[in-house]
Fold each of these.
Amino acid sequence: QLCVGVLALQGAFREHVAAVASLGATAREVRQLKDIEGIDALIIPGGESTTIGKLLNEWNMLEPLRQRILDGMPVYGSCAGLILLCRDIENSDQPRLGVLDATVRRNAFGRQVDSFETNLSIPEIGADPLPAVFIRAPVITGVGAGVKVLAEVNGQAVAVRQNNILATSFHPELTPDTRMHSYFLSFCGK
Ligand code: GLN
């Protein structure tokens, strides 16, 4: 059975665990380096990207995780998880995995729109629009040639894929719609 690690250092990891389990895969909370042994894929949840990055750094998990991803392990980051995957973070030198060839702007929707929900058209995951919850969400302001934009809001990328790497600005785990997680599990080819 597919074993999906969910990084559980900080943030909204429980909802990802539940989404993975509802799809019939095993979800394993990843809190330290030894927890990544034997996982087939990894989800990095929303939360506070500076905190998660700092903890990854302190626990010496950044480099081994980066290597696993470069070796092809599927990884999905939502919100703070997306930020941690990006190579460039505007106006920040915070610790990151940096494996996604993209530039991200944190808290891009401003204070007035702290959070909002909208329906997104994402042809890649199906014809029906996906309910998407944005919470102090980032947007992707630039992507390299190998990055496919899956969805946009106001002309800015909010869901992207680069081979084994999936990232969304929003939180599909906070809705009952599991299509984004199914799509991600399909990367595992099992
Ligand atoms: N604003 C947060 C950050 O920059 C992300 C918010 C979230 O994950 N919901 O890390």
Amino acid sequence: YTDIPVSENALEPRRGGPKNLPIAEVLVDDDDCPENSKQKHKPKLVLLGSGWGSVAILKTLNPEDYHVTVVSPVNYFLFTPMLPSATVGTLELRSLVEPIRRIVSRAKGHFLKAEAVDVELSEKLLEVAQTNAQGEECHFYLPYDKLVLGVGATTNPHGVKGLENCHFLKDIEDARLIRNKVMQNLEQACMPTTSDEERRRLLSFVVSGGGPTGVEFAAELFDMLNEDLGRSFPKILRNEISVHVIQSRGHILNTYDEALSKFAEARFAHDQVEVLTNSRVKEVQKDKILFSQKDEKGETVTKELPMGFCLWSTGVAQTELCKRIADKIDVQTNKHALETDTHLRLNGAPLGSVYAIGDCSTVQNNVADHLVHFLRSMAWEKGKDPEKMEITFPEWRDVAQRVKKRFPQAADHLRRLDKLFEQYDKDQKGTLDFGELHELLLQIDSKITSLPATAQRAHQQGQYLGRKLNKLAQAAPGMMVNEVDYGDLDEAVYKAFEYHHLGSLAYIGNSAVFDFNGLSFSGGLMAVYLWRSVYFAQSVSLRTRMLLAMDWSKRALFGRDMMNY
Ligand code: FAD
């Protein structure tokens, strides 16, 4: 098939839908495709986004089975785990991106550089916005038989004032802006007209958020300042520069094993990266950051930190498109992500027509239910009736540990449960029965639904969906284009999605930490090489692997390029 007419001038397209917009058609070349051929009646599969989830689908999908269209405002796939390295020039920006059209062509699909703005669920029409040659925004509908939402997430502002004074790190453009700002501050600090006080402010770098992204950025910045500053900016003394990480929890990297968080904190202490824990940013002003901190007595005090640069990296929030979709569906009540069933189908959408994967979604996978399930199997293993079994504190800890391995993101909730159980243990009798445990589960939010917002999860979900779409096409060719109720085909052809947590890793400045499913370790140079090889192997193409290898060699031989672009 040829192309999709998208503008109103092209071939006078059919109009329709609730907003009476032009409707883009998939054009099938009639010579090649007789009226009733399989080719002509292939279902229309629309993938939103060119990130981890969509790329995993494209790489798994059987190219013959669907008319594939990918819609994304950017025409590249970004290898996010290495993005912090691009902010200081350890890696070049182009080494982290792969043109999406190359990947789409593998699935014999189309790519539209445009943004999805709305979905008419009952009419299976996706509203797309595109900027035309005159710079005007035009909207059109793209019909689909199956739609996959893989639009990722945006930065979570947490209601804090002054975020316009911060930098973010989500996209390649963010990395470029950060690199330029860091360089600009270093250049300004060298000016003879800059006062000492102003110089210290310009060289005060603050990272708000002690998760992997914030920590890796702080580590990369520290490396650059240590390794390349002296050569390029001999007038700036290392002790004039300060790097601060503000973290709301008690530890940085708090979803990792506790020993690893402590290792990372010790490493930062050694490298003079200041970690401010139990601290919450209240407001970011142009030249300073205001935050509250709990002191040793548990009292909250407000403090000020002069700064020349602030990175805001405090978790993810829903995109506008996802909010709009959630507003249309009564059962979508989760404020953080679109909820799907375990087959990754969007809850509340017509069955089997819309799927959501990656950061924009959460599988309704009740952790509390899993806890009960594990406790039940423990009872059966011991030959006891689960409903009558009494659970001791060590037994509870064993079960909680198993659940934590499967749902690392529930670690905090499980710790809260541990505390409740411990208190209960002290106050009363030392054991709980099932009914009592259920009450405890209700005291915390018993519906801990989220999965981690990671590339690992988006990739697994994309692969799962690609395989399922292949099976659906084989099991019932053409079923998605005919308006026939085939029942729950997804369940009939493929198992439910199961997340397998393979582990977490983070770079912490000439050393790295690994948390592989209960096996955690940390270390220096060897760990850094292991960290690099994991990502090198995962990198999306031979082209990007070659570029990464060249960047690392160039940096080792000549240092980083200390300049603006
Ligand atoms: P994304 O990869 O974010 O892709 C979303 C896509 O949707 C983008 O192409 C975007 O342009 C497009 N899009 C957005 N809105 C629309 C719209 N309206 N219409 C059409 N398209 C749209 N995870 C790890 O597992 N390990 C790590 O080490 C790691 N490090 C990270 C470091 C950084 C700096 C960042 C930012 C993230 C990191 N992550 C890491 C998280 C990981 O990148 C995300 O979890 C992953 O990208 C999610 O994949 P996704 O497919 O859901 O969304």
Amino acid sequence: MVSASPLLHEVLLAPVASTPHRPAVIEFLGDDRLRTVSYRELGALVDSFAASLTAAGLGVGDRVVLESDTSAAAIAALLACSSLGLPFVPVSPEAPDERVRAVVAATGPRLYLRAAEGFREGVRGDFGIGRFGQDGLRIVREPAAGTIRHRRELTATDTAYLIFTSGSTGRPKGVVMSHGAVTSFYRGMYTQRIVGGRDRVATTSPLQFDFSLLDIGLALGSGAAVVPVPRPLLRWPRRFLRVLRDTGATQVNGVPSIWRQVLRYEADRLAGIDTIRGVLFCGEDFPLPELRRLRAALPAARLVNCYGATESMACSFTDVPDPLPDDLERLSIGAAHPGAEMILVDAAGRPFLRTGEVGEIHLRSPALFSGYWDDPAATSAALVPDPVEPRSGQRVLRTGDLAYRGENGELYFTGRADSQVQFRGNRVELGEVERRLLECEGITAATVLVLPRPAGPELCAFVVAGPQAREGTLLDGLSARLARVLPSYMVPGELRLLTGLPTTENGKVDRAALAREAGPL
Ligand code: ADP
């Protein structure tokens, strides 16, 4: 039974009462060692952390930066903050000082909590400092005296957390999520029955990416166990698989790029892990050639395409067809979870239901963010009047994502509105060129950018091929093949073969880095 509470910690800690002895978190410590923290132990850790935070004088509304990888202690810390109404701001230990400074300057935290010893030299401020671990939460430097409190009660509209997006679609923005929004998202997610009480959910995203909060919510709210995969091991396919095998993971969540090296070098080993029953991916398109290989390695697993943005944590869960039809061109992003709706809107702002026509997704949902932190202009650009009935005062999320509707009402994501570029007088959808590249024999991943070149802007394609590919033959063949299926202005003038695509801290394709690394022709 899922808790009906609108408060984050109450939903996620419900199993402390119902299944106290079941594992809540299973940590991989290396060398065949695991640490299992039961729900009862997790609940006790949350209480002890909350007592230390209360003793430090923190109260409803005080922001707390939480720098940690995902672990039992980090989950306890964020739930302790939640229980006291302290909005937490997750930051990864991997994040550069500059980014952390920006987060601190924007949010003005009263406390900076860290799992690790010491403190970042490059980050200063008049916040208190605390350290936490399995053994408790210790205040190392007291926070400055608090302001006068106007309220003590915690309500559904209070802020649960702030997540700074990686900014793949612009400058980083602080997405403010209320308790009511995140718990209503969780409730929509639980109706999909992705995991049950016996599952072990491997989580691979950094804590600062809200996909990790999706994983934690999915596992704990279902009475299952969270299995944090140590981030450094993700780079090594064998070690990553070892974590999955040793922890008995049954469900593996992450962005598509976590599978790239595994599928390239260790597909057989992956096929040998027979505990995995489900894979959920999110954040960007899963290149179809790679997805076919994942399906082949895990023929019995349920593969779920989760679509959405930080502004609503996510919004749809769609099963990948099994088997994957040979002529499948795109994955469906289905329909929004129960309680929410994706509306397609044309260029004139009118909603429509026609099939096949591309429009911008607007999301109507009780799981929407409150706004961008300290940024009313960006907030009103994203939270717009309901296009179906603008007079109602209701706001919906303008996602910036384009999609069309299929015969059964399901949606197909075609790209970001801002990836439609004007190129030599023609409108080019970069995702369309990428899709054509992925249809070419041997190509496993592709990204297309418009880059400045001496003779003017040029379409540049970066492709990754299977290990057997021979560069010269492959690239010549590609140009010829693209010229047959695309108008000439959409055929990239420059093609580069790479062994992998650079990724952001969150594991998505890093287009900015690709542009920088591409350098001059
Ligand atoms: P960032 O801007 O930091 O990347 P988000 O994680 O919120 O922040 O990114 C959300 C965007 O990622 C969506 O608006 C969409 O463009 C893309 N996206 C998310 N999930 C999927 C998916 N399953 N398939 C394709 N694109 C996706």
Amino acid sequence: MSAGYIATWADQKLNGNEIAKLKEDGLDVFKDLPELVKKPFSEIDPSYFMYFKYAGLTVQKPQTDGYFMMRIKIPGGRITVKQADHIAWIGEHYGHGVIDLTTRQAVQYHWIPFAELVDIFAGIENVGLTTKGAEGDITRNIVDNTLSGIDPDELFDTRQAVMDVYHRFQGNYDYSNLPRKFKISISSNVYNSADAQINDVAFTPDTKRIGRHTIQGFNVLVGGGLGMKPYLAQQLNIFVPPNRVADVAEVICRIYRDYGYRRSRSKARLKFLVADWGAEQFEDKVRESLPDLQTKGRSKVKGWNSGNALGVHRQKQDGYYYVGVSVPSGRISSDDFRALTDVARNYGRDEIRFDHCQNFIIPWIPEDKLAEVEALPIFERFSIHPHLLADYGNTCTGAEYCNLANAHTKTVFKPLIEELDRRFAFDRPINVTMTGCGSNCAHRSIADIGIEGVHARTPDRQHVEGYKLSVGGSLLGEGHFNEPLKGVFSKEQLADAVSSILADYRDHHEGDETFYDY
Ligand code: SF4
């Protein structure tokens, strides 16, 4: 922790988490764990549970049983085959054979046992991965263009910038006590493939004329985020060359650390500070530390592809293809994960990627092997020829495991979306996304049709799970969130309710009109 930085927020009334973080840094959980796991879980004081987050752990409900949801951090969503093997192994040995893919290119498990944590972490570190900072009030997994380095639609390769930022923050005690989580997105894809506007900080492709040369780099957006009160990020008038991305990310994080709000956790994200200051004042603060930054150049963003990389496509390298495999509801068994890993092992180049939409990407398939790969039996169950409705939505953990959920998600979403896919055929992807509460983890607010789990009551006042619908989200242009419709539906009513929206859109939209436009 930097000496003296507390002074800037010492006059705030601090919430309980903040007071606890002053007594012990979140990253110290790794020092505590070897002794902690020798005790029965029942002896762990629930006030300690917030520290588990810094190790990528959330106590799973019922919170007395000593099992965790565990998330592994994967910068840019890229892993080797050896790492993939270990991810499958953990799922098989500890996670009841199940692996969930997240909307930040990471993986997570349930049923991780308290007593085994030290060994599990040692195994993860041994293959070059970590859970450190996968949750908690810290820099979260950095999202990148899923296809960086192989993408015909990128301005330049962003992998080095992502790793520069990762190493700047990872395990860094200067930035381990933030007001809340801090999310960074980096992409030079011209279709906004890393969902820039919903991140605390986003780097988007830009070119700048300097003298007689045109330089490629980034614009910067700040203050986006979903959650209960979603905000779209605002643009700063800054141009950042790729080799200075980590410097700019660090300065913005420092401003957040020092001036962010620590009184109420529901108002602690950077978006609230940016909304209060405005982009201009925020930029002035950035320039106090980095006065030599150029003003922004010409944005190269010309659309939005939802960060999706489904299907079989040419890479920018001649003779090679990537295969984007749909993982329904983002949930896959360890056995199937291993079968997909085998495709990368046998046909690719020791590399697997995860996109922002809970899917599995296998790059570097040689053209002369493509037909053989497409015929593999695993792709009969995991589509590489995506259904434009069934394969484009996301869903979060929901009531099955999440302590905050109002309703079940994955078990409701999969049959729902398959039914909708049987009823409709569209000529462009339609994004139907479901979350289990207003926290918006699966990005419900930017979906064409968003479904949110809510508490509902039957006519005789019994509590039941219900679902509300919102329509018209998109990150095209500056972006806009979908808008809620009236009514709450039971899971049995959902297929007909969503179908009526889809039918209306099918019958009335013109050309490229989105759900927002028509
Ligand atoms: Fe849990 Fe709500 Fe996030 Fe879903 S959106 S994972 S229910 S907190």
